[in-house]
Amino acid sequence: MQSPCINQNLELMPKDDGRIFIFNKSTKKTYSLGRNEYKVLSILDGNKTMEEIHKKCNNYSLYDIEKLINEFSKIGLLKTEDTNQSPTDIIEKKVVDIKDYQKKRFSIMDKKIFKIFSLKKGILHPDNSLDKDKMIFRILYFSIIYLSLPIFLIGLLVSIGTSSLSNSLTAPSWYIFIPAFLISIFFHEFAHIIVAKNNGAHIAEVGIRLILIVPCIYSSIVGISYIESKIKRILISAAGILLNLQVAGIGFILTAFTEGNANNFFLWLSMFNLMLVMFNLIFLLKFDGYYILTELLNDKKLKENSLSFISYIVFGKLFRKATVTNMRIKLSLKKKIIYVLYGTLNIAFVGCIFVTFITNIIRFISSKI
To answer: What is the number of domains present in the chain?
Structure first.
């Protein structure tokens, strides 16, 4: 048997309480290990035998170490035996049960198809270089949390007072549209990073993702669920919205003192930031508004639970599932009402998007015939 070796494609983020967050740059998944578990993982250099590993980690039995290493291998923390194979291929080879194999195979196919429409490329892993104790970090945090709404309101009043909003809005050229759009997205993710790091979360990765053909900046934030304060968790989710409001307010103020292309740029910068605010407040999809709502309702899986409950109501008599039945019995009347309302709105919203998409395609094809 080949000696186990740690995967070099991991990003380590130590916590003050001794836990270690481990981010896999390939799978984009994050795991939390205790101090003793990480000690075992850290000495797996591919050269040590199980007996040598046991000597260095004698607080575990040899059996426990073997079991732990097996778990590390399953979740991709170790190098695979064949470097030409992906972890998915190796997992598939180890599957014995035909039904489980088929489920995994179709799940993998679905993920590959989905990745065509949602591509991610990590660029930075800035967690260790971000120091929340620096003065600039504190100033930025204070500005995002406490100054965003006042600046936005001031900017809005200035814009209304000078009539710049109604008189200056014209269709943007590409050299205005693209920078204004990218800057708006950058500030949104930047706010999440600043507020998350300041409140004890970690920034595993920052990169570029492609949703259909639209380029976006994304940040992978880990450890939010370990933050005890609900207010802090809500602030992390709301940070992007707050800074977008602040940038929109600054843009409105600058339109009062500029003309021509500069005026058009700042006005569209404000518009794009407001669009992002409205977009992220859509709580029926998993954007910032959804995560704020899950915190307020104390339900991390609001969407999944709502759809499961709706499916039970509709199909319960035909397809009874023990888990859904147990969930139905344990739910309070308040939870049932929330699940019915959210689930119904979610299905209706997604249905409207689908119908609109199909209708537009039909209209486009009809116009070309």
So the answer is: 3
